[in-house]
Write a structure and sequence with these properties.
This protein is 38% helix and 14% strand. It has 273 residues and is of the alpha/beta class. It has an 8-stranded parallel barrel, surrounded by 7 helices. It is globular.
């Protein structure tokens, strides 16, 4: 398996080959997904909320993101490693964003930086690229930006979506602006089946999506823990997924407890010679 590069991803778009990314937060999972052949391993700033139980998704700090990204970097040999800024460096201005990105490169060895809400900060995209740091720029409809686009959050993902006048033009303008600013990839949040294909066809760099994406994009990114059902809520969920690791863990720990309480030798104990 060869090392993935940004030019290779851009060639995949030209060849109409789908790009596969996953969000990962630890060393073991990083090794697994890398061996599975993913193209991008994304260290998302949602780690605080989804893995550590932080109630406020903005609570995650730069130091915490560095630590998580270092762990993931150690587990990845072939895929590109991207890291999200926590809330703060981008909002504090261009100089702060560049300093934070340099820290990610020097301390955690990332291959690129993912900027959430990048359409509002094109000057930061350009500054990072000038500093030699590739950018994966996110734009699209989020709970925070839905009203500014004149649309209910999530509505554009329905097949019968009624797209407000000028919305497609605005999305395309945002994408072209970020491409012109120097972004290597785009993350189109809630692209929907109407606007998504139109933007993807007219942009020269890969357009990838997670929330609200679909096969009309150049690729997809999915949180690994969500894809495999690794969360407590998956224990009682009817949502179809690729696995239910939480149920497997629950059953295994329950069986372990029965052996301990029954004074039986536990599995995994080295055999006596």
């Amino acid at each position: 398996m060869s090392k993935i590069t940004i030019p290779a991803l851009q060639q995949m778009k030209r060849d109409n080959k789908k790009i596969f990314g996953v969000v990962v937060w630890d060393y073991q999972m990083a090794q697994i997904v890398d061996q599975a052949g993913v193209d991008i391993v994304s260290v998302g700033d949602t780690v605080g909320h989804n893995l550590w139980g932080q109630s406020n998704p903005l609570e995650i700090t730069m130091d915490q993101m560095i630590t998580v990204t270092q762990a993931v970097r150690r587990g990845v040999k072939n895929a590109l490693v991207s890291a999200d800024f926590p809330y703060g460096p981008l909002q504090d201005g261009v100089e702060s964003a560049v300093s934070a990105a340099i820290r990610f490169v020097k301390e955690a060895g990332v291959d690129m930086i993912k900027l959430d809400g990048a359409a509002d900060f094109p000057e930061a995209v350009t500054a990072l690229v000038k500093a030699g740091i590739p950018v994966w720029a996110q734009f699209g409809v989020t709970p925070q930006t839905a009203l500014s686009y004149g649309m209910e959050y999530g509505a554009m993902n329905r097949a019968d979506a009624q797209i407000p006048a000028g919305m497609q033009d605005r999305m395309l303008a945002d994408a072209k602006m970020l491409e012109a600013a120097g972004a290597s990839l785009l993350d189109f949040t809630n692209s929907g089946p109407i606007v998504g294909p139109a933007v993807t066809e007219q942009i020269g760099i890969p357009v990838i999506g997670g929330f609200g994406g679909g096969p009309w994009l150049d690729g997809r990114v999915r949180m690994a823990n969500a894809a495999i059902g690794y969360s407590a809520k998956a224990l009682n969920s009817d949502v179809e997924n690729y696995a239910n690791v939480s149920k497997t863990i629950f059953d295994a720990i329950s069986e372990l407890g029965k052996d301990v309480r029954a004074a039986r030798q536990i599995k995994g104990t080295p055999p006596s010679k």
